[in-house]
Design brief:
CATH superfamily of the largest domain: ATPase, nucleotide binding domain
Strand order of the largest sheet: 6-5-4-7-8
CATH topology of the largest domain: Nucleotidyltransferase, domain 5
Distance between the termini: 18 Å
Helix content: 25-40%
């Protein structure tokens, strides 16, 4: 749709800029009161009120009423009818897919197990089919999706969109994953690591919301971390920031899949933990270990606690380097809760540099195994540009 651009510095361009600030804030934070919108955008309450009225009348925003701190307030969000986005998360052993509206409300979701050494071609074919089926169940088609976010269990080079470190995700290396899925579904696709997107979800709307800095440690088949500063991800030059699974605990330790020795993953990653049990005990997946621990099995609880201690040592180094306000623990092993996190806290207290404000709090993820999928939804929404008369997708 053709649009007339306002002249720079004009009153019209100032109004457009202010509207964009309001919309961008809602995309980042979801539902906000008008007072919170004024604080997050730096605009006056009167300006926010006028913009909300204007964009509500044009169908861009939706308002409702809420009571916060005992006072009636106007709650503002993007209008649901703006369209749908999808989040896709490939972990090492599981696929999660969710479709959400502009308010981040999940309208349908699905999950299924994956083979350990899954490859990009077969799995992207499967995702294309599943997305099509899910959209059809909603009475739509793939063409109705505005964008798709994709989380992968490996660091992603932001300049190429490819896995940045050889050996960490065989079967997916040397592939522009976003372009490959885009060619299958005909919709824009944006890709990042699972730890980054888990961290983004927890910082935007979960356990780390409103904090200046946070770390999301994802513990499952593999171990990695997402670093968030001021609500934005810190990826590093090659997208490798936060790969604590490959911090060396013992330079003479076991060989890791990254070809180094004694990495954290060789002591606390899923395969290392499961290998501690004889085949007769049937520990095939982390879910088996979690269930046994929940049932009170002492060996299983000890294995998880030892993993927590190792992860806590690595988290202490990360705390010394990054100095976050909170460390959020997610991933499948994160579902063990205090069995894992209590030893992490003890190791952090022993090894991290103390400060007058204390050490970062260690908490569980708000969204469990769906944090990464919600983060994928968030990056999809980040690329949807909403204006008063058109919805566009940015590069």
């Amino acid at each position: 749709m053709a649009r007339r651009s306002a002249q720079p510095g004009s009153q019209s361009s100032l109004r457009e800029a202010n509207r964009a600030r309001v919309i961008d804030s809602l995309k980042r934070h979801g539902r906000l009161t008008q007072v919170e919108l004024a604080g997050s955008t730096g605009l006056s309450p009167a300006t926010v009120s006028n913009i909300v009225k204007e964009l509500t009348a044009s169908g861009i925003l939706h308002t409702s009423f809420t009571s916060r701190s005992g006072r009636r307030a106007t709650l503002v969000s993007l209008a649901r009818q703006l369209g749908l986005v999808a989040g896709v998360h490939f972990s090492s052993r599981q696929l999660h897919i969710a479709i959400a509206d502009a308010m981040r409300t999940i309208v349908t979701q699905s999950s299924l197990p994956l083979a350990l050494d899954h490859r990009h071609d077969a799995e992207l074919d499967r995702v294309a089919i599943l997305l099509g089926d899910m959209m059809e169940s909603l009475g739509g088609s793939l063409s109705d999706l505005l964008a798709v976010g994709l989380a992968l269990p490996a660091p992603i080079d932001p300049s190429t969109g490819m896995v940045s470190t050889p050996g960490l995700l065989r079967g997916w290396e040397g592939v522009d994953v976003a372009a490959s899925l885009r060619s299958r579904i005909g919709r824009p696709v944006y890709v990042d690591s699972e730890a980054n997107l888990g961290g983004l979800a927890e910082a935007r709307e979960g356990s780390a919301r409103g904090l200046a800095s946070s770390v999301f440690i994802r513990v499952g088949h593999s171990i990695s971390a997402g670093l968030v500063v001021g609500g934005d991800l810190f990826r590093g030059v090659n997208g490798k920031a936060g790969q604590i699974g490959h911090v060396t605990l013992d330079e003479n330790g076991p060989i890791c899949r990254c070809s180094n020795r004694g990495c954290l993953e060789t002591y606390a990653g899923g395969p290392a933990l499961l290998s501690l049990f004889p085949p007769s005990e049937g520990m095939q997946r982390l879910g088996d270990l979690l269930q046994a621990a929940e049932d009170g099995d002492g060996s299983s609880r000890r294995v998880i606690a030892d993993a927590g201690r190792h992860i806590g040592v690595a988290a202490a180094s990360l705390s010394n380097l990054f100095d976050p306000e909170v460390i959020v623990v997610g991933g499948e092993l994160g579902l063990a809760g205090e069995i894992l996190m209590a030893p992490m806290r003890h190791a952090l207290e022993r090894s991290a540099l103390p400060s007058t404000r204390g050490l970062p709090e260690i908490v569980g993820a708000s969204f469990g195994e769906w944090s990464e999928t919600r983060g994928a939804i968030a990056i999809a929404l980040d690329h949807v540009t909403v204006e008063s008369d058109v919805v566009q997708i940015t590069a």
